[in-house]
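Narrative of activities, Objective 1.

The group set out to show that a structural description can be obtained from nothing but a protein's sequence at a throughput compatible with the screening campaign. Below is one input-output pair from the validation batch, recorded exactly as produced.
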Amino acid sequence: MKVAAVVLMMCSSVGPAFARTIPICGAKGAIPDGKTKDTVALQAAIDKCSAQGGGEVELKPGTYLSGPLDLKSHVALRLYKGATLLGSPDVEDYPIRTDAPWRRVSLIHADKAEDIGILGEGTIDGQGQAWWTRQLTRVKGSPEQPRPMLIDITNSKKILIEGVTITQSPQYNILVVNSDGLTVRNARIINPGVKAPNTDGIDPVSTSHVLIDHVFIDTGDDNVAIKSGLVERGDPNIPSTDITIRDCTFLHGHGLSIGSETAGGVRNVTVERVKFDGTTQGIRIKSARGRGNDIGNFIYRDITMDNVGTAIQITEYYTGFKGDEVAIPVTEHTPKFHDITIENVTIANAKVGLLAMGLPESPIKNLKLKNVKITAERGQIARYAEIAEDHVSITSTGNQAITGKKAEDGAGNGPGVIITGK
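Output recorded for this entry:
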């Protein structure tokens, strides 16, 4: 009798949902003792599922030590409660990618796959400590050594990551590049802050139709970073579009970022009901001359922040502001920030409330703040930005009180600033 293929359905038009009556592929030969390498047995189970048309590879309670695994189309990896997929600590198990030599093959990776999942209540542990130490102790100015991500998916469609705890990643926890249809929900991503450098939580790069829903992220870099390629690396100009982030909690980390690598642009992002607590930034949109494209149509609403560094940072000077206000010609990769709405936001105990820094040749256009309450040491810093404020309250607890609405008013507002509203 022919085994039925995995049945997948789109959820909110942004990701797959695996049916429950699907073929099961046991990891025959795996020894979940945390010492024996199970790479061969686990990969064999994935390959078997793929060959029969799809299914779930089940990891029952125990610790499965493994090197990189190649996830195939119509296959889900299900980790039951009490199951841990433990990344091998051996560097040689993670070869450098020939198509992306700045990173190594990841613990879980997929390329040109469709309808894939990482599911369950178990844990994926990358044992990243040794990788972090190499990064933190390298000689200043020396090249970075390529590291693996924990989950790295490229050129794929309909990806579901649900329920799992993801921790101790050598570098980014979840990296999805040039893909369509990513859902991450009811997941936890945990890394030990500054001791775990560059451990971004979720990075969709040139990826569209994304849903990040009920995800807890406590990490050592951007909690989420939406990107679309690095010009200097020759990445294609493929945008990231149609992204929803909702009902999430972000602790330590660099906040919810768009950029800075935005060669293809980023459009149509909605963020709602997100809590920031102790992040170095909150809402963060960042690019720079030569790194940007069309960046806009963003809505942030029903947001709370407490004890953050810069609460709202929107900057086209991410690589550094040198005080040079001379406009230069606009190019394909000049960042063009526009149509950004921030509403129903409460910010307490911030160091900086709002930083809006446009370029003289490409000002920030149509930035709207509505029902925003900010308490910060420094209230508002703006240059080359059109800002419309409706019921905005900014209370400065330091020496940078905002005393006026006009440009060059002594409150940190620079040239080219237009602030309207009440």
